[in-house]
Amino acid sequence: SGGTKKTVTDSIGNTYDNADYWQIGSGDIAYSVDIAESGLYNITVSYLLDTNQENNWAFSLLIDGKSMFDEMENIILPRYWTNDGKKRMDDFGNQIAPKQIPSLTVVTKQIYDYSGTAEEPYLFYLEKGSRTLTFSGTTQNVTIIGVEVNSPKKLSSYEEKKKEYSENGYKEYK
Question: Whole-model pTM?
Fold first, then answer.
């Protein structure tokens, strides 16, 4: 991997050692992953965005130096917000919504279509063996806690679920 190694603590007290701090303009950051079997996979990123910036995190992703589809050129992962904890009042003494500040909690997200065109996370076909995931062009200073490659969760068919419910003693209501 790349970036500057550092230890970070989030707002709820979790400490993460040996995380990669990636700054705007500092080049690419790469992770090597071992794929046990060729197939379709999701890529999950755990990250913590700097609180002095207010935008979502955008970057591009290459797998073994290649972009598999256009959307990999502009992946967007969200920034989350929280209340600042202070009560606010308007000029008439009415309580109003608290000020929003960037959240300092680790976010874990599968890489997905931020535009909402596709509901499911992206699937990446990865061949068996060692693969390199290269993140480039970050728009935010970010601490990457971890990158994981996982097989997508398979949903049970109706018949499988019906059998499972029957075995657990659930009753069918008509």
Answer: 0.79
